Amino acid sequence: MSTAVFTRVRSTLRCAPIYLLLILSTFLTLMTQAAPIKQDAKDTLDSARDGPYNLSVQAGIAGAILIVLGLILCFFGIRFFRVCMFLIGFYFFGNISYIGMVNGGVTSQTLLLVISVVVGILGGLLLVCCSRLGVAVLGAMALYSLGLWILGWQAGGIIHSSTGRAILLGVLAVVGFIFGFIREKETVIIGSALLGAYSFVAGVDFFAHTGFISEADSFINSKNSVNARVGKLTGPEYALLATFIVLALLGMFVQFRWFGRRNFRPAAAAPPQGNVVYTEKPSRFGIFRRRH
């Protein structure tokens, strides 16, 4: 009985990217089919949303997705390898499309969200099929996220030059990409923990509005200038920065401790050793033989 249940669970997990695709499609459907709000009701909602928890529909959806998927990545990246590859493709291609559209002048939040999610879904399906490339992309994105975290410890970035920030993020991404080809298992565990922790913290900031996301966005968005930003980080921003590294280390510990010996790729079948002896057994039809 337990064997049958285990087999069914494994077959279900193989289809996890499809299930995630359906979930994300449902979110998009709910968002695009939302009924318009009358102006009086909208003014009332806007006045009620004043403060740190001013949240739009798009931000709420994006924040919930980042939190849930971030926890999956952080603690179960190597355990659910195919899901991990789908999420990496989703984040990578969605992020690339977002950066390109923002720097290209697109200002509609709904358009940015819809196109980024659609491109991310297609990219996730691609990396499920090309998992070796996906591991390298995971390494690049993990160190890229680590670079954003390092820059975020000072208002305007610890590196004030936009060229210097680009060099730091570019070098870290290249190092992570190369490391992903050299040490696959370590890249999956460390990279998924780092990227999952960053995704979780970013999702929390969509609701808390501490400024963590806006500052990270200013590092990669050429339309925003961080050189002119003055002041100091707030307590909630420091709390999210600390949460990132604590959650990442905890995710690494959990994955190395419980899933570190797991082979996330099926082992190749070993060739037969020695001389193989074949015997013949009469079939029920008499004139036919089958070999064993």
Automatic annotation (TrEMBL):
Subcellular locations according to the entry: Membrane
Family note: Belongs to the TMEM198 family.
Record has Transmembrane helix as a keyword: yes
TM region positions: 58-76, 83-102, 108-128, 135-156, 162-182, 189-208, 238-256
Major localization class: membrane
Lineage: Eukaryota, Fungi, Fungi incertae sedis, Mucoromycota, Mortierellomycotina
Topology of this chain in the membrane: Multi-pass membrane protein
InterPro entries xrefs: TM7S3/TM198-like_dom, TMEM198
Pfam families recorded: TM7S3_TM198
Entry coiled-coil feature ranges: none
Keyword annotations: Membrane, Transmembrane, Transmembrane helix
Protein name: Transmembrane protein 198
Every TM7S3/TM198-like domain range: 63-256
Organism: Linnemannia gamsii
